[in-house]
Amino acid sequence: MEMNRAVIAFAALAQATRLGTLQLLVGRDGRSVRAGEIADALSIPTNTMSSHLAILGRAGLVTSTRNGREVLYAADPATVSRLLGFAETTLLPDAARFADASD
């Protein structure tokens, strides 16, 4: 994953509701969910959830599929995997220094 895409994805996740949304969707193992179901699970209004899903979608972390009148959302496993790989290769090699510093 290139640096600019990673910055966009991390920025999208720098908010508790969006991070919780991605966590919920990743836990669904690729099964799609309606915005209302996610909103209910996170105890927020559906219209607010739609805004958060749009931000996650623009970051490439969430996909949406129209099914009749419903829009179903799912985590994009490829993007999530690339973001985790980016974090692992760019942040983890030096993480030991920080762990030692906190002692």
TrEMBL record:
Record domain HTH arsR-type: where: 1-95
The keyword Transcription regulation is annotated on this UniProt entry: yes
Family annotation (InterPro entries): ArsR-like_HTH (IPR011991), HTH_ArsR_DNA-bd_dom (IPR001845), Metal_resp_trans_reg (IPR051011), WH-like_DNA-bd_sf (IPR036388), WH_DNA-bd_sf (IPR036390)
Cited Pfam families: HTH_20
Domain of life: Bacteria
CDD domains noted in UniProt: HTH_ARSR (cd00090)
Record's keyword terms, sorted: DNA-binding, Transcription, Transcription regulation
Keyword Transcription appears in the UniProt entry: yes
Database matches in Gene3D superfamilies: Winged helix-like DNA-binding domain superfamily/Winged helix DNA-binding domain
Coiled coil ranges: none
Name by which UniProt lists this protein: Helix-turn-helix transcriptional regulator
Naturally occurring in which organism (per UniProt): Sphingomonas albertensis
